[in-house]
Amino acid sequence: MKISKDASRAARQLMRACIANGRLHPTRVKNVVKRVIEAKPRAYLQILSAFQRLVRLEIEKRSALIETAELISPPLRDQLRADLHRKYGEDLEFNYVTNSELIGGLRVKVGSHVWDGSVRGRLENLRHELA
């Protein structure tokens, strides 16, 4: 569904109202959604759709998905956590997943940023270069 510029602009304004001290406040998000539903402004479904997308993206920026072929050692886990805290801030949440398809190494995803240091990723890159 294509969203109008006005609906997109309204969603961004609502998003700015929900962020304080650089963090998204869930109570404010609930209140904003409730008020928009009650007021039913023009194109309110488009506004809520765009707002939902912005909230989802903001939440994804605050969580890190770390995929490894095998369980990683606690010292390596602590080092990785410290590095990501330095880069993205202290309020980052971590999800560790073992994925045997990676063959070896690890893949880190924070928001839209992906670092692929897995053997599978390297093999895929090599396959594309040779094709």
What can you see in these coordinates?
- By secondary structure, the protein is an alpha+beta fold.
- It has two domains: 5-60, no CATH class; 62-130, no CATH class.
- It is built from five helices and six strands, in the order αββααβαβββα.
- The strands form two sheets. Strands 4-3-5-6 form a four-stranded mixed sheet. Strands 1-2 form a two-stranded antiparallel ribbon.
- Strand 3 (63-68), helix 4 (74-88) and strand 4 form a beta-alpha-beta unit.
- The radius of gyration is 19 Å and the shape is elongated.
Low-confidence stretches: none
* Helix/strand/pairing category: alpha+beta
Q: Give the total of domains.
A: 2
Radius of gyration, rounded?
19 Å
Cross-sheet strand order for the largest sheet = 4-3-5-6
Largest sheet: 4 strands, mixed
What's the order of the H and E elements?
Answer: HEEHHEHEEEH
Form type: elongated
Q: Helix count, per DSSP?
A: 5
* Mean pLDDT rating: 92
Proportion of residues in helical segments: 55-70%
Strand content: 15-25%
